[in-house]
Design goal:
The protein has four helices and nine strands. By secondary structure, it is an alpha/beta fold. The protein has a single domain (about 1-179), classed as Rossmann fold, CATH 3.40.50. The structure holds 1-O-pyrophosphono-5-O-phosphono-alpha-D-ribofuranose, hypoxanthine (HPA) and magnesium ion. 1-O-pyrophosphono-5-O-phosphono-alpha-D-ribofuranose binds near residues 70, 101, 104 and 105. Pathway: Purine metabolism; GMP biosynthesis via salvage pathway; GMP from guanine: step 1/1; Purine metabolism; IMP biosynthesis via salvage pathway; IMP from hypoxanthine: step 1/1. It catalyses: IMP + diphosphate = hypoxanthine + 5-phospho-alpha-D-ribose 1-diphosphate; GMP + diphosphate = guanine + 5-phospho-alpha-D-ribose 1-diphosphate. InterPro entries: HGPRT, Hxn_phspho_trans, PRTase-like, PRTase_dom.
């Protein structure tokens, strides 16, 4: 069972659910009449995006991009690689980037600059913000939870590609990393 590898639950399934309802309502109000493009960043944003979009009760379109910099490890490589791009024109579009976490900030800084360069109006919604991890300056417009400087897994977040399917966000036991 996945659960036996978890040292502590940081954010419960219920807390995540309530937060997505709250964020969905805020986004629906903010983007009413604007037909925003909700841009999920693969792979980590999948559970959060699936939950959030059900709570945004206005017309939206969905797109996905894949970027990677951790390669399954606990350390950012420092280099953000674009692995899958959108094929939709973004000039003048209201784009809402949906992310699972801002940690060093490198991923979102790279993406925001790229999309703004293409002429999009970009805002960021993230489930988690780890401000103590930051090495570049970038902030989300909408944040679910601010978390301490610990490596977390679950609800999209992985270690070595695993644990994304946990329904909550938690911290792994040390022996999982050392084995
Ligand atoms: O603020 P940063 O330090 O850049 O970290 C945040 C990014 O790192 C993770 O993605 P990762 O590159 O591991 O790809 P994944 O979504 O497939 O796990 C996470 O999903 C964010 O996209
Ligand atoms: O704390 C984290 N956990 C999993 N993936 C991550 N990518 C950036 N920070 C994290
Ligand atoms: Mg990852």
């Amino acid at each position: 069972m996945l659960e036996q590898d978890i040292k502590k639950v940081l954010i419960s399934e219920k807390e995540i659910q309530e937060k997505t309802v709250e964020l969905g309502q805020i986004l629906a109000t903010e983007y009413a009449g604007k037909n925003p493009l909700l841009l999920g960043i693969l792979k980590g944003s999948v559970p959060f995006m699936a939950e959030l979009i059900k709570r945004i009760d206005i017309p939206v379109q969905l797109e996905f991009m894949t970027v990677s910099s951790y390669n399954g490890t606990m350390e950012s490589s420092g280099e953000v690689k674009l692995l899958l791009d959108v094929d939709t024109p973004l000039k003048g579009r209201e784009v809402v980037i949906i992310e699972d976490i801002i940690d060093t900030g490198r991923t979102l800084k790279y993406l925001k600059e790229l999309l703004e360069h293409r002429g999009a109006n970009v805002k960021i919604v993230t489930l988690l913000d780890k401000p103590e991890g930051r090495v570049v300056e970038i902030d989300a417009d909408y944040t679910g939870f601010t978390i301490p400087n610990e490596f977390v897994v679950g609800f999209g977040l992985d270690y070595d590609g695993y644990y994304r399917n946990l329904p909550y966000v938690g911290v792994l036991k040390e022996e999982v990393y050392s084995s």
